[in-house]
Amino acid sequence: RAPLLMAGAKAGGARVVNLASEYAGELDLSDLQFEKRAYDGTSAYKASKQADRMITAHAAEVLFPAGSGVTVNACHPGVVTSKLLKGLGMSSGFNSASEGAETPLFLAMDPSVAGVSGRYYVAKKETPCRFSGDKRACRALWEACRAIHDRVLGGKGPSSEL
Question: What does the alpha-carbon distance between residue 105 and residue 124 come to, in Å, rounded to a whole number?
Fold first, then answer.
């Protein structure tokens, strides 16, 4: 298992914060890498953010269950002004980088969420996640990601230990 996280757990707790998005959906478990359908950047982004939330829920339940000393949560940082958005012609009206960091930092450091795991947050508030309730789908995604990882890396790396 992830050695740094386990060391953090032994030292009094570790927190994993995954960045997701409210702009999520369209995940096709039978075609994670768009091999059977035309690639679409928007669909790929939305699917990846849905996957972030599902992996978070699964990891909190299976990889780092209650009592492990590790919490795993996901959050939407808001839409943050960035070079990417500027390149797309959208450069104003969004959160600053500091504002975008508020919820991830809250999950990483605030005592009020110590021990809270497997949840999704928006603007420092727990928000229901429509994707994480299907435990079978979360497990299937986890296994599919492991298979892709092992295929690409030849079975080497931390995935083989999980």
Answer: 9
Residue 160 belongs to some domain of the structure: no
Provide the domain limits for residue 140.
Answer: 3-154
CATH number, domain containing residue 50:
3.40.50.720
Report yes or no on 161 lying in a domain.
Answer: no
Beta pairing, strands 14-19 & 125-126? unpaired
The domain total for the chain is 1
Which one, of 146, 126, 137, 25, lies nearest residue 74 by Cα?
A: 126
**Does any domain span residue 159?**
no
Query: Residue 72 burial (CB < 10 Å; 0-12/13-18/19+)?
Result: buried
Distance CA 60, CA 139 (A): 12
Per-residue pLDDT of the chain (162 residues; tens, 9 = 90+): 567 766 766 676 789 999 999 989 999 999 999 999 999 998 999 999 999 999 999 999 998 888 888 999 999 999 888 777 777 777 776 888 899 999 999 999 999 999 999 999 999 999 998 888 899 999 999 999 989 888 888 766 555 455
Return all residues near 149 (Cβ < 8 A) that are at least 6 apart: 157, 159
0.90 exceeded by the pTM? no
